[in-house]
Give the backbone structure.
Amino acid sequence: MKKITIGEASRQSGVKVPTIRYYEGIGLLSAPSRSEGNQRSYEPADISRLVFIRHARELGFEVDAIRTLLTLQDDPNQSCASADAIAKARLIDVEQRIRSLMALKVELEAMVAGCGHGRVDQCRVIEVLADHGQCAHSYH
Amino acid sequence: MKKITIGEASRQSGVKVPTIRYYEGIGLLSAPSRSEGNQRSYEPADISRLVFIRHARELGFEVDAIRTLLTLQDDPNQSCASADAIAKARLIDVEQRIRSLMALKVELEAMVAGCGHGRVDQCRVIEVLADHGQCAHSYH
DNA sequence: CTTGCACCTCTAGTCGCTAGAGGATGTAGG
DNA sequence: CCTACATCCTCTAGCGACTAGAGGTGCAAG
């Protein structure tokens, strides 16, 4: 039952101090009790919640999605269909992003390979950017 | 020498009208001449510049990087080493992003596959987020 | 001449934080 | 007990790259 300060909570959860306060402000984390001197005092459950949030953020889930996931976590009797849907949507998004980035990689490689370190008027980087028709791929 | 309105410039360049004004505001695009009635009047060169900007943005270049690329384009006597460096940095960034996203994809796939559409207390999505140790990869 | 769309400027909002000011509290050493 | 210093508090403003909306003007077709 020892009190966990915000700094300690930050160290244990890996979430920065101002970010913890920010999460409280937007209602992702409920306001903890306060010490005599008005300092936040966290409990182990809050640390778990912060780890959950951090992990979800690292996986690219938006704050709104995390809010939904957290309400699901709080009530384990619900169907997990929502959580499943959120994860699936995120997966589709990630797959799309990977495809775009792969195409982009090809294009950048061609740009860099084409650049002979001469003057700008022979530079493929500039040329490709100026004229979309030069693109290796026209995915965008 | 017909005047190109901002709407027409938008259609031809693929850059939205408010975004064109925004680019003017941040100095990416110089302020065009105005009509009698104070309406912006663009020239073909402006459209090219907008296409250049749009293309670079789609490739993920930041506005600051584009600013540099544009000054290079304006003065073709310079060495293209800067443009080359910008493109190379971007390539490295893209490769890193692809690696992260691939690892993330694996993790999301495991989550979604593990979800039996039952109740939340058996849901792998929630479980994995709550306990980092469950991760397929610990890259983050 | 009116209708209605496109244009104008300006401000404020988006997202997920991050930085800094200016002050209070808590703790360790002397 | 005093001082020094880290940590905490609240509040506001800033980031990047736009986007949305209010409130008003210009212009072209019917």
User: Anything to note?
Assistant: The CA atoms of residues 30 and 113 of chain A lie 53 Å apart.
